[in-house]
Every structure is written in structure tokens, then in C-alpha cells.
Amino acid sequence: MTLEKERPAEASVAAQIKERALQLGFSKVGIARAESLTEEYSRLQQWLARGLNGEMKWMERDPAQRTDPRLFFRTACGPGSPSGQPAWGGGCGRAKSESLTGKISRYAWGDDYHEIVAGKLRELLSWINEQWPDTEGKVCVDIQPVMDKAWAARAGLGWIGKHTNLITPEFGSWIFIGELLLNLDLEPDETEIADQCGSCTLCIDACPTGAIVEPYVLEANLCISHATIESRATEMRADVAEHLEGWLYGCDICQDVCPWNQMTSVTTESRFQPRAGNVNASLSEIQQLTPETYAKRFRGSAMKRAKLSGLQRNARALVNAASADFSSAQSEKSRKGARQ
Prior knowledge:
Strand content: 5-15%
Helix content: 25-40%
Number of strands: 11
Shape: globular
Structural class: alpha+beta
Number of domains: 1
Distance between the termini: 107 Å
Oligomer: single chain
Strand order of the largest sheet: 1-2-7-4
Order of helices and strands: HEHHHEEHEHEEEHEEHHEHEHHH
């Protein structure tokens, strides 16, 4: 008589999908049930009513759809699957230069994260279709009307910090988020990570323009990232231009001071590593770009978002600020000399 060895139970569909996502290079994966984000919808409406979205008028279009993926992807009867991939989090200092340079936000140092994360999600969806042929899915990476951070929090990846960015225990806020909306009935991750910002206000205190007007609330019109990326104004508003602190594209100040970002891991995704000239950019180079050289210089880069006119406007603002600082220093030197 032989005893047949009991076979281990097959992993759930959700577990198999998570495992495959990790194999494809995602660093953290969670599942949330596709439903209306009721509380988030209310907060979004209040934020928009206060006019805090700056020039991002597209956020005013159909907020109900933005907070309910079933209205955007009508076959999503099951949960979405937000997935995280850390951005370049360290290992590269900002080089000193004799010429004027402008700082670039870390997320744009390497290749365009939209293309990288979306590519991985498409690979995951293709694999899911092979395993479960009737599956329908929609890839979302920061372009579609989906509240990325809210869904990531719902899926247990992290919490939204006082600087309004998603913070994960493992990677801080140096992450990229993507979602895969599926019509599969998957078991969601019910446990959300509690807010761990505590009494810390470092991000609020460090913002040179006061853009974080209260914990968890951002005034886009005062945000350096908004001014240097999203704004299409010919000239930068003075109350922001006077406090750029060297930022040409984006701003990382509130994240740089966050305690959760001090001991984070560096991504293993080589395409996120800094391109030449994408940590500190020469302002003279930016000012001399033509449409042709701009297209070549920023091909496959998230910095295309600002457009050539925006980058050159930002460079002008930094040059003007440097000139004003120099004139002020010279005047102070003259005053000191006169008193001696």
C-alpha cells in the first residue's frame, strides 16, 4: 500500500499575478477592489473648489470618473492592481560647475517612467491573458483619469504624506506608480498602511514658497514643480521665481527632507539611472536649444512635459535670479567698503 503525497494547493489567482509582477521588476504590488473612492472624491471636490489646482484645469473634468475606475474602464468588476517601482533614490550627487546650471527632479534623471512602467504592465497583462484568456485589462500610468496615489494607498503600498506624495516604508516616496485595471474578481489587500508622518512638519517647513498650505493640502500655484512643469505662462510668477533655489525642472525639496527618504534603496532598473546632463542642466545649453536639438536632447525623457518654451522660461528665471543675487552681493560689498 502506498500513500499518495498530498499536493500543495495551487496559489490563488491574485498570488500568481503578484508573483509574476515581482518577476517583471516591480518592487511592491498590491490589489484594491474597484469601487468609488468616496472620501477621496469629497476631498478632490473641496480642493478644486478652492482653486488649488493651478493651471491643471484637466483635473476639473469629470471628477466622478477620476474617482471610480468602473466609469473609466466599464468592465472592471474586480479590483485594480497598483504596482510600485522605485525611482533613482541615490548614489549620484549633483556635480559642481563653473557655469550656471539648473537642478532637475530625480524622477526625470533617467528615461521616461511612463514608458518603462507601462511597458512592464503591458507585459504583465499579456501574461495574464495567456493564463486566463477572457481577461480584459487597462494599463494606467499617470496619464489616464485614475487617482494613482489613492489606489496605491488602498492597495496597502503606503500612505499619502503631508507633502501629498505616497510614502512606502521600504522606498520612501521615491517611487513610480502604475495600475492595471482588470475584470478579474481578485482578493484585495484589505490592510492599508496607517499614516506614519506623526507630528513631523519638515516638508511643510522646508518648502520655500509655502506651497503646502496645510498638512496634506498643496497649493499648485505656489509649487515649484507646477511652475516649472505644468505652467504654460510665458513668464514665471514672481512669488515663485524669487524662490526657485536653483530648480530648472520640478522640485524635490519636500521629499529630500522627508525622514522616510533618508535610507531608501536604489533601484535596480538601469533605465532610471541618470542620463548625461539630466541631474544638473546647463542653462546656456537650454537657452540655445532649437526645436530640433530639443527633440533630440529630450527624446524618451519625461522632461518633454515642460516643452521647449517652458524649459527656456525656467532657464531665464534662474539666470535672472543669479544676476539679481550677484547685483545684491556687489551692492552689499560696496556698502561695507564705504563704511570702512
